[in-house]
Amino acid sequence: MLLHIVARGRIGRSPEAELVERYLKRVPWPTRVTELPDTGGRMPAIEGATRVVMLDEKGENLPSRTLAEKLGRWRDDGIRETRFLIGAADGFGDAEREGADLLLSFGRATWPHMLARAMLAEQLWRAASILANHPYHREG
């Protein structure tokens, strides 16, 4: 299953970009990052068997294991792509939220978009490691 991050804003050469790259290299599944301008730009076409996850302040604050299990079920059910959307500074509107399969939040704090992208990349690595019974993830 392809894990595809579609994010508004350019990350450029930055410490956050290095973190994203570092974690995505570890993920054993195929990954892709698509950057769109803050406004406009063309969203890549969504083909069949795709799940859409929006990072959104109104989303669920899922434990890492729960996110991993959800991704594992989607993979096992034949989903070909899980697309993670990171919006611009103003986030997503209600109509956009309705089209998502999952609204995901990284807590009640507000995070810069570039840091949210790095946090998402780490969570994707963590999810893959949980599903592979790798010792990286520890629950306390």
- Strand fraction: 15-25%
- N-to-C series of helices and strands: EHEEHEHEH
Strand count, sense and barrel status of the largest sheet are: 5 strands, parallel
Overall outline: globular
Q: Which labels suit this protein?
A:
single chain, five-stranded parallel beta sheet, 4 helices
Structure notes:
The structure is a single chain. The protein is α/β, with parallel strands linked by helices. 35% of the residues lie in helices and 24% in strands. The protein contains 4 helices and 5 strands. It has a 5-stranded parallel sheet with strand order 2-1-4-3-5. β3 (50-60), α2 (64-76) and β4 (81-86) form a beta-alpha-beta unit. The longest helix has 19 residues, at 113-131. The protein is globular and about 40 Å long. It starts with a strand and ends in a 9-residue tail after the last helix.
Structure summarized in a few sentences:
By secondary structure, the protein is α/β, with parallel strands linked by helices.
Present the secondary structure layout:
Elements (H helix, E strand, L loop, with lengths): L1 E7 L6 H12 L4 E6 L13 E11 L3 H13 L4 E6 L7 H5 L3 E3 L8 H19 L9
Parallel strand pairs: 1-2, 1-4, 3-4, 3-5
Helix pairs in contact: 1-4, 2-4
